[in-house]
Amino acid sequence: MVQQNSVYYRHEYRIAGQEAIRMRLRSGEKFIVTSEDGCQGCELLPLSGAQDGWSISVAAEKGFAEVTRALMDEGGAAAEKLRRKLQGWQCDSSVLQSAYRFGADALPEVTAQEAISVVVVAAGRKMAVDGHQPAGELNVVHFAREPIDLPEPLAEPVQEIRIPHSSARTYEVKAGQWIQIIDVQGKQSSDFIAFDQEALRQGRELMIDGTATRTVMGRSLPQPGLFSRFLDQEQQTLLEVVQDTVGRHDSFLFACSPKYYEDQGYFGHISCTENFNNALKAYGIQPRLGWPAINFFFNTYAEDCGSIGFAEPWSRAGDYVLLRADRDLLCASSACPDDIDPANGWKPTDIHVRVYGEQENFPRSIAYRTIPEELSRMTKQSGFHRRTSKLTRHFAEYRGYWVATEYDGWGANSEYLACRERVAMIDLTPLRKFEVVGPDAEVFMQYAVTRNVRRMSVGEIVYSAICNETGGMIDDGTLFKNERSGFSLDLRRSLYR
After folding, report:
1. Which of 31, 57, 134, 286 is most buried when burial is the number of CB atoms within 10 A of its CB?
2. What span, in angstroms and rounded, lies between the C-alpha atoms of 291 and 308?
């Protein structure tokens, strides 16, 4: 998130538990660290200039980054992810030796007297199954003199393509490579088209086709949003959508064309269609009056009557869409020149494209917000994904996680009957678990759920419901009595949100 005032640009970041970000500050800039739940501390690892070039608002313990090292020594997916990040930032053992450690009750505000680079770690050891304090989130607010141009790369890019505002660029992508299309300053639309390179060599223009995509994906009409994959005229997949940090796009109206501007009275206004025509000349591709395109970051909405409207994009600085090519492609991306309506927040800006090698592996993930004002969160794979993904490709997003909807060779009916007649194993990662402890735990649970919890024995588990004052269902779940003064409550649906 970026907010500008007379002096600073305000950039906001979230650090998940056991993860880290790198902060780069110019002289006079600062960042403030706060804890989401009031219980998470942090460790600062100075990379360059920080030892003498900064001031810290609170006292810190100096020395070895104990929790960061302990996490990496424990192993596991979180440890490996953090290790790769620190390695990419040249954060070696000598840096870990000179850490600054802060508790949750005294998190730092750091001001740079010169250019510095520092890593902020939401340090936390892996929690035991009977533990009660997982690693929590940290929020970081950076007050910068200038807008930050680009987010950190997802991996080492093999191509970097800058698309200046009001222009278009072409680039070639190999099968299996990843395409990250980044909105540099936010609220900037980017049209995208792609051709099968082998077909072009044969003299055929085989490209993304809206009708084929909608037909195979089971949609009768064009609509806002993105499909999980896009197909060509022969109904074969060209590319897949893997990650999306915005969730608001337009999948198949035309890229802006001269006719649109002429109808609005802006004769001679440059358009994405003309920019595409010029960029594709070198490949012998015939010009068109309108290009069917994926319109990334374009805030299209459909009225009940079917008419189309649009508003300012939802994308913020650094938001992106990540695609994967299913075959060798010729791609073209634009930074839309539309400055006569809200399509680009009234001021066209740049788009940036990064291409990553086919050896990289990025999980499927989309953004969501529990409230509109907060930073987006990305959906995650559950801890069981490596196993379940070998049994099915049918996954759906549920409360922030990707979970299997059915398994190959069985189907919904067979799985339903297994639940009733035999046994079923279900990935319950998305369930919200609450620990209710203390001398009044039983009194509280007696009030909160419909079961008579006073009759429960230690170690017993029951199904129950939470209702409103008139008896309407709020949520249901399972209640486990851990001890005389402690309960675990697993909720199934939306009470947490």
Report:
1. 31
2. 18
